[in-house]
Design brief:
Helices cover 44% and strands 13% of the residues. The chain contains 19 helices and 18 strands. Helix 5 links the parallel strand 1 and strand 2. Helix 8 crosses helix 13 and helix 9 packs across helix 14. The N and C termini lie far apart (49 Å). InterPro entries: NAD(P)-bd_dom_sf (IPR036291), Polysac_CapD-like (IPR003869), Polysaccharide_Synthase-Rel (IPR051203).
């Protein structure tokens, strides 16, 4: 009897990158046999017919109804992206559970009106990329509170609709901020993504949302409007992945990216509560960053795929197609703060963890977003102008332009951070022993490593005084110096341990 790992290895060998070869029927038959064996293996742990998403749907963050009712009573509220999954639920919560005044539901398409709220909810069709059209909505409605959820949110689609994604997620957000300030909006809450916590990402969707975060973080202190940002992760009731799996089962083959990938999931109830509760936690000055307090255990994507096949009742083979554009095979572990278990949060990076604290009920984590140490507004203007002036189908140009900007911003973010914390991030992410266990190399981690190392060029560290593990730092630097492009940067870093100064 094959082990689970052996079954997966044979599937990978039979249909590399999802290719069944010139004689597909015998391959399909064998793949179904292996898929069936894999289903039985997982079923032995827990019945495979149990929906693995259900436990996430039951999660909740308490909606602070009493305080929100007092604060929002009679106020005019505008929700962008109101026809979307989260946006429509935010409108419903406002209409059914809170005593707001009129609610403007803005989207590119018709927004649903909650039953019984026909006299309070005003649906409006407008494109946030169009400053003039959106400005007319603000002028006519004069909102006091804005919940900005409009976005192109599908990572896979974003890789094809590059111009639309960048212009919606960046230009559209800039327009909303401008209008909030112009029309004296009290509070604006912006919906972002946990993927924006990465220092750098090649993903068009996450990259565009990260640029929007940088823009908000820079502009917030100068705005009359108080700004909050909410980072979501995958929402169980609006699962792009689950919907995709069901479509593939209907098509006869379920291909997933890789066998050993996990994803964090939260409930729609959590998402709505995060958006609305953030209203109560914004303050003057810097933007407030909010995410769920405890995400719990991530979901095994392979189990979800096998569950989808099992409940279909069909003989649908499983295969692995590899990672598409916009996905990273290896995670840079310096993304997280490993100095204290209380600081390790998948939706916050290690430059944001020091400011983080839980709300009293521990439902939400509050922090400040990391951002470049130099002004970004003019560079963002140029980025958006370059994309808007190019051919809408010239995806390679858009991706290159966004990637270049993100690398520039990543480096500028590192430059503004405490050098000792940057060194910790480097050792957490590039410790050779950990990389070996992960089957990764420094080069697999992408541009973030040379950007981080170069930001430390010329730095001098007193290991004991700065709380660094000198042995681990030295080991990491020695490993990095073996990479030719990194060696000149590493040679400029010195670490003092007692009376001895060492360089790699």
């Amino acid at each position: 009897m094959l082990s689970r790992a052996e079954i997966i290895d044979e599937i990978l060998a039979l249909a590399p990158a999802g290719d069944f070869g010139p004689n597909p029927e015998p391959v399909r038959a064998r793949l179904w046999g292996l898929t069936s064996a894999l289903i039985k293996s997982y079923d032995a742990d827990e019945p495979i017919t149990v929906d693995p998403m259900e436990i996430y749907r039951q999660r909740a963050v308490p909606l602070e109804t009493t305080r929100l009712a007092d604060f929002l009573r009679g106020k005019r509220v505008l929700v962008t992206g109101a026809a979307g999954a989260v946006g429509s639920e935010v409108v419903a919560a406002l209409a059914n559970r809170l005593p707001t005044g009129a609610i403007c539901a803005l989207d590119l398409r018709d927004s649903p009106i909650p039953e019984g709220a026909e006299n309070r909810v005003v649906p409006v069709i407008a494109d946030i990329r169009d400053l003039e059209a959106t400005g007319k909505v603000f002028a006519e409605f004069n909102p006091e509170i804005v919940y900005h959820l409009a976005a192109q949110r599908e990572p896979g689609l974003a890789e094809f609709e590059t111009a639309f994604t960048i212009s919606t997620n960046i230009t559209g957000t800039r327009n909303v901020l401008t209008l909030c300030d112009q029309f004296g909006v009290d509070i604006c809450v912006h919906a972002s993504t946990g993927k924006a916590a990465r220092y750098y990402t090649p993903d068009i969707y996450a990259g565009s949302k990260k640029v929007a975060e940088w823009m908000i973080a820079e502009e917030a202190p100068s705005l009359a409007t108080k700004i909050g940002m909410v980072r979501f992760t995958h929402i169980a009731e609006n699962s792009i992945v689950f919907d995709d799996f069901r479509r593939k089962v209907d098509a006869g083959v379920l291909n997933i990216h890789e066998p050993y990938r996990l994803m964090y999931v939260q409930s729609m109830s959590e998402a709505v509560a995060l958006v609305l509760n953030t209203t109560l936690y914004v303050d003057d000055g810097e933007a407030t960053l909010v995410t769920v307090g405890d995400l719990g255990w991530p979901l095994d994507i392979l189990r979800l795929a096998l569950h989808t096949i099992a409940v279909s009742g069909r003989d649908v083979p499983l295969c692995f197609m590899g990672l598409p554009a916009g996905y990273e095979k290896h995670t840079f572990l310096g993304q997280l703060d490993w100095s204290d278990p209380c600081k390790t949060h998948p939706m916050l990076n290690a430059l944001e963890s020091d400011d983080a604290h839980l709300t009293e009920d521990e439902g939400m984590m509050i922090s400040r977003p990391s951002h470049p140490s130099v002004p970004v507004a003019a560079e963002i203007e140029r980025l958006c102008a370059d994309v808007e002036s190019s051919d809408v189908d010239d995806r390679a140009v858009h991706k290159k332009r966004l990637a270049d900007f993100l690398q520039w911003g990543c480096r500028a973010t590192f430059d503004g951070a405490d050098p000792a914390q940057r060194m910790r991030i480097l050792t957490w992410g590039c410790d050779p022993d950990i990389l070996a266990r992960e089957g990764a190399t420094v080069q697999d981690l992408g541009p973030v490593v040379p950007l981080l190392v170069d930001s430390l060029r010329g730095a001098q560290f007193d290991g004991a005084r700065q709380g660094l593990n000198v042995e681990r730092v030295t080991r990491t630097l020695r490993c990095l110096s073996e990479v030719p492009e990194l060696k000149p940067m590493v040679d400029g870093i010195s670490v003092v341990s007692g009376e001895v100064a060492t360089t790699a």
